Batch of 2 targets.
Target 1
Amino acid sequence: MKKRKLIFPILVGLLAGHIFAEGNRPFKVINTLRFGYDDNVDRSSDNPEASAYIQDIIDLSFRAALSGRTDLIFKSRFNYRSDTEANFYPNIYAMLTHSVSPRLYLQLSDKYRSGSKTSSYSDGRYNYFENTLLFSPSYVLSPKDSLSAPISYMIKRHDEEAKELDADILTAGLSWKRTLSPQRTWAALHLKQIMTDYINRDSTYDSTRLTAEISHTFNPEWQGNLELGFSLDQQDFLNTSTGTNETSESINPYFAAGLAYIPSPRTRFTVNISQSQEVSDSIRYAAIGTSRELRLGAQHDFTAKIMGKATARFMKKEYDQQSNESGGGSLNEDRFDLDFRLHYKLNRVNFLELGMKHSETSYGGGGRGWEQNMIDVGWRVEL
């Protein structure tokens, strides 16, 4: 039965690609078939189990101008993998934009994402999905200034063993953007209110964030952006050890910066670093005390046919004792990911791939850490 599930999407992806292969078509289809090996399929801390796997990824994208003022964009990714029971993860994104007037611009989008995660309190992986509905109107005040007021609503749902992480998140914001130098520099002020309700436990997390952002292109080789500010964060939860309702408030810094270096059309390097307070990924805490992340990326075209990409991510999460719903102590989580992928272009349509990935997570405070190594070879068809 699993083989039939795997072969069917491959045939559908290839057939759809051939149908729209000629002329100016609104569709783009990419089908990637990978054969790999995973030395810790369930991301277990005590009993890692290795397995070979087959993965098929179908990417579909569609863009259409419904009128002179209205555009529709649709993107989807369907991910099938043979080494787990729940081997199907759909990811769908649709965006509708409409220009009411030369000054007023409306955007409506819906994003559905699914996948698997690990946790600090149980061994192995669990599945989840997120669905985010976003409405964002923008108004042009002048040739240099514009206002936007995005409003979004997200639902997060998980497997039964992690249902305490289920949450509804309402976000409302207001942003003012000003162009300081055309095509080179712009600055913005952002005000955002985030309201989180954990629906399967008596806990909420609210955050008011105020930041200033600037983006600048120094020259064709160097580009950078910087966002600084602070957030007023509040957690209300039931302390299960005492049976009392508790409230914790704090003011926390917000920081995000990115730098891109493009020495030639064939080479690109990126660095991104951030620090913020975020929604919790642990059932014992109402919020993350501090989340820090560093991302490094490199891409290079060795020849006209060979391209390589490498990314590294270092992440540290600190769960504060004041947000612990069981009355316990703090928890630290350290995550490291290293991903390398090599692409070889056979012709305009067919590509070969080689991928390697190493991931590891450790916890301070009694959590279950794990390590995982994956390697795969693949064939990608772009139609």
Note: Residues 107 and 166 are 27 Å apart (CA to CA).
Target 2
Amino acid sequence: MQKINFKQSPLAWFCAVLFAMSVFSPQAQALPRGGAYVYIVYTMKYKKVKKTLKAAIPSSIKAKFYNADLLTVADYSGKQKAVSKFERAQLVVFIGDETIKLLEGSELKIPVLIVNSGLQDVKSRKVVTYLFDKAHASAAPSGLSKTSLATAAELKPGTVGEKDAVVIIGQKDDAFWKEVAAVVEKLLAR
């Protein structure tokens, strides 16, 4: 095998640059082909929830889980890196107050689902849906339309996805997190 001399071969440089651009470009890292794509942002406090959601989300949805405890957002650029990563998805789901506090002041260009947190410190240029179980319903932000349901199956088109809204599902524990997966599926189907 002959060694390539990059100093003397412009063609070798061109091929190397072209290869690097194809591997590292945003288009190469864009949405996967086929199926929906969602980022689920959690903390180690919700490690069990991650497992439940992973099992409950249909295979047609490509879910990426992001442990926010590992996020270094001490400066503005750390937040921006996280936000740009999330914006590659079609929906981002934040679980609990801790994930919202880490990205406080951020605005995403994609729809956002905030689960069991009434904090309004993360915004979306499209729509924010707040989803609560019975135990956390009192933390719901005021001033938004509220819908109470027994299960996600009762969620009617137009209830969420068009304007910021609050949805309360009368479930708790694992049953609630399975309903979260169903809400994610409905939001992505829009």
Note: The longest strand covers residues 36-42.
